[in-house]
Automatic annotation (TrEMBL):
Lineage of source species: Bacteria, Bacillati, Bacillota, Bacilli, Bacillales
Record key words, sorted: Endonuclease, Hydrolase, Nuclease
InterPro entries: AAA+_ATPase, AAA_GajA/Old/RecF-like, Bact_Antivir_Def_Nuclease, P-loop_NTPase, TOPRIM_OLD
Annotated GO MF terms: endonuclease activity
Superkingdom in the source lineage: Bacteria
Start and end residues of each AAA+ ATPase domain: 24-345
Descriptive protein name: Predicted ATP-dependent endonuclease of the OLD family, contains P-loop ATPase and TOPRIM domains
Length: 565
């Protein structure tokens, strides 16, 4: 049964009802600023599955504003039939107690309720839950639960499946003999204890008859029947642990290692057990990881990202993260749903569709992942703009910083990479802006101009309905009133411009940059684009920018040929 929707109210920061609809994607990524509730939402999902025992009374800190007069409500909707789309909804409520389960009509689910068996199956399939601040005892408990599930899976296979191989056949035979012999032993013991209990019953009855002067009083002390043992009996009697070693020491408890190694070990254990099929075949058992990047250096985070994608291929995975590195642009993005947790709702930022990347795109993305580790921040921003070069990147970043806006600037470093980035953003159906150089420079020869026009048209071909494209004529430096600036001077020059150094010299350039920024991001101001910047609304706009130069080039060539004659 796949979790389709989860809602929470009156749980910690969620004092109003907050819901997330999950897609069919295997990897769900929760983003958002600090204290918005990413971690709390994962915790609430795990809380839904926790047993409602006397010792399980929820802490007062879990109630919104620590007000125990409120009712915490955790509501989960599950798809029970993928073909028909049939769903069921189960609520777990805490009202200053240990929690109770209810159906959609708020009828408590007790022993004879129609959903009791379904609820039991759901709770047996509780998720693995990994947090940044797990204690050593909690990690050991998680490992023990995983080991127990392995034992349970293997014993279930022995009971219902045919096995191949001499060793497995012998194990199955031993297991069958054990199941048969233990009930026989228990019956013999019961026969002996029943005789003793009968003597106790007779003696107690005589004592009561004497005390109450009633010869008809009878007490019968009886022993319970036993059907042998269950798989859970074996699981309870097993123990497990994780030992780790290095060059200096061997077979040390995992508890002696740093937090990063402890959590990575647990994640890798789960990954490998899944890949080897040792955790059973229930495809809807979830893995919840809160901030998996915590306590890891960047290269370890990249390695972790690869593992998470591998896990996501085998089981539903929900993570909360602040790390753009965990979203690997070079992966085949066919399994991701990205949501931003806000104050009152979760906004679906992206839901992947079929991959549209060719080999060159993937290579571009791999290069960018290592050259610019911040590129993936577009998953965390409210607005996105792709720029071609360093100069416009620095200029726009400064204005964004000054106004404290949540806008991410992606520095593509070339028109080919702009196209690759557009494919990614289009795949995730997100709006974005593009600012690139037109490169219709008067010094370029005919073949170079045609190549640049082709590059521009390639960008426009990938334009989605929510994409806006802007061009700098012929490039950003000239568009803001500078002459061609050497590459070695670009960073220094633009830094001086945006920071007010040499104010009189660069005052006009600053005005042009601000005007462009306001036109793109502050439409309500109503400014007009400066003539050196253009918004590309159709391929004809590119043609109009290149045609005068291409026509001029043809005339020059014609005159030269006439002179030779």
């Amino acid at each position: 049964m796949r979790l389709k929707k989860f809602s929470v109210i009156n749980y910690k920061v969620f004092n109003e009802k907050f819901s997330i609809d999950f897609s069919k994607e295997d990897i769900v990524i929760l983003t958002g600023r600090n204290n918005t509730g990413k971690s709390t939402f994962l915790e609430a999902i795990n809380q839904f599955y926790l047993p409602t025992t006397a010792k399980g009374k929820i802490q007062i800190e879990c109630y919104s504003n620590q007000d125990e007069t409120k009712i915490i409500e955790l509501e989960a909707e599950f798809i029970i039939n993928e073909e028909t789309g049939e769903t069921i909804t189960i609520k777990k409520k805490y009202s200053n107690d240990n929690g109770k389960y209810y159906d959609e009509e708020d009828v408590e689910i007790k022993a004879r309720h129609r959903l009791k068996e379904t609820l039991d199956r759901i709770l047996e399939n509780s998720p693995y839950y990994i947090t940044p601040y797990m204690t050593t005892e909690e990690i050991d408990k998680q490992v023990q639960e995983i080991y127990s599930q392995i034992i349970t899976t293997e014993l279930n296979r022995l009971e219902v499946e045919d096995v191949e191989g001499e060793e497995l056949e012998q194990i199955k035979k031993d297991y069958a003999e054990l199941k048969s012999s233990i009930p026989k032993l228990l019956r013999k013991i019961k026969k002996k204890t029943d005789t003793s209990l009968e003597n106790v019953s007779q003696n107690v009855s005589k004592n009561l008859q004497s005390v109450f002067s009633n010869e008809y009083l009878r007490v019968s002390v009886q022993g319970g029947e036993s059907n042998g043992f269950s798989i859970s009996d074996i699981v309870k009697s097993t123990d497990s642990g994780v030992l780790i070693g290095n060059k200096q020491n061997s077979d040390m408890p995992l508890s002696t290692q740093g937090t990063g190694i402890q959590r990575m070990s647990l994640i890798y254990i789960i990954q490998n057990l899944i890949e080897q099929g040792l955790l059973g075949t229930n495809e809807h058992k979830m893995l919840l990881i809160d901030e998996p990047e915590a306590f890891l250096h960047p290269e370890a985070v990249r390695a972790l990202s690869r593992s998470l994608y591998s896990i996501g291929d085998r089981m539903p995975l929900i993570i909360s993260t602040h790390s753009p590195i965990l979203i690997d642009l070079s992966e085949n993005h066919t399994t991701i749903q990205v949501l931003r947790i806000g104050k009152s709702k979760a906004i679906e930022l992206y839901q992947s569709s079929s991959s549209q990347f060719d080999g060159n795109d993937v290579n571009n993305m791999k290069l960018l992942n290592y050259v610019d580790s911040y590129i993936n921040e577009f998953f965390f921003a409210e607005q996105i703009i792709i720029v071609e070069g360093d100069t416009e990147y620095i200029a726009l970043k400064q204005y964004i910083k000054n106004q404290n806006l949540n806008i991410h600037v992606i520095r593509a470093r070339g028109k080919a990479t702009i196209c690759s980035l557009m494919k990614i953003l289009n795949q995730f159906k997100t709006p974005y802006f593009i600012l690139h150089d037109i490169d219709n420079h008067e010094r370029f020869i005919n073949s170079t101009l045609k190549a640049q026009l082709t590059n521009c048209n390639n960008i426009y071909k990938l334009k989605s309905s929510s994409t806006r494209i802007f061009g700098s004529v012929p490039n950003f430096e000239r568009a803001i009133g500078l002459n061609d600036v050497p590459n070695s001077k670009k960073t220094e020059t633009i830094h001086n411009i945006v920071n007010g150094i040499n104010k009189d010299l660069y005052d006009e350039a600053r005005k042009k940059i601000k005007n462009l920024f306001d036109y793109i991001f502050n439409e309500e101001i109503g400014v007009e684009l400066d003539g050196a910047f253009v918004e590309i609304l159709s391929p004809l706009d590119y043609e109009d920018l290149f045609e005068p130069l291409l026509s001029r080039e043809k005339k020059v060539i014609k005159r030269k040929r006439t002179a030779k004659l």
